[in-house]
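Tutorial, part two.
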Amino acid sequence: MMQFSQNDDPERAIKVHVTQGESHVTTDPQVVMTTVLGSCIAACIRDPQAGVGGMNHFLLPEGDGRGGGDAVRYGAYAMELLINDLLKRGARRERLEAKIFGGAKLFDGLSDVGASNSAFAERFLRDEGIPIVSSSTGGVSARRVEFWPTSGRVRQRLVAVDNAPQDVRRPAPAPMPAASSGDVDLF
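Running the prediction step on this input gives:
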């Protein structure tokens, strides 16, 4: 029989799904944050001593600087928002640690937005002095991520994406009728 700590008990967990452009912070040990990522990035940041943590989910590294409603889609805004919310809940910057996920390249022939997102997240956290204690980025599979922000536990499941070229099957063309001699075939 599988044993769970009170914090990781799936029967008692309060799931919070974090979608593109969102960020969530909590001190509740029953909360598990979930998200599904392709080329997007989720940063899971916490202060283990204060027992506070959170997750964001961003679509692109940096915007055009105009702000507005689209700002939530960009990494710079999402990272600042998450860190500021952690600090408001009692975290201390020098104790923060991060785990990052996502950044896959799901489609051939397109620019590798996932790699740009991963590089941005790593650079941003390095510049802020926040160590990345674990990460799973890149590859060609989407990810389903569950993060328990107070304990720091993370579970990741890769989601198979079949983006291999597909054979297109077309029906064989109907045979051309033989030269007509005036006969009619009835079926």
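The helical segments are 75-88, 113-128. In part three we will examine how such features are distributed along the chain.
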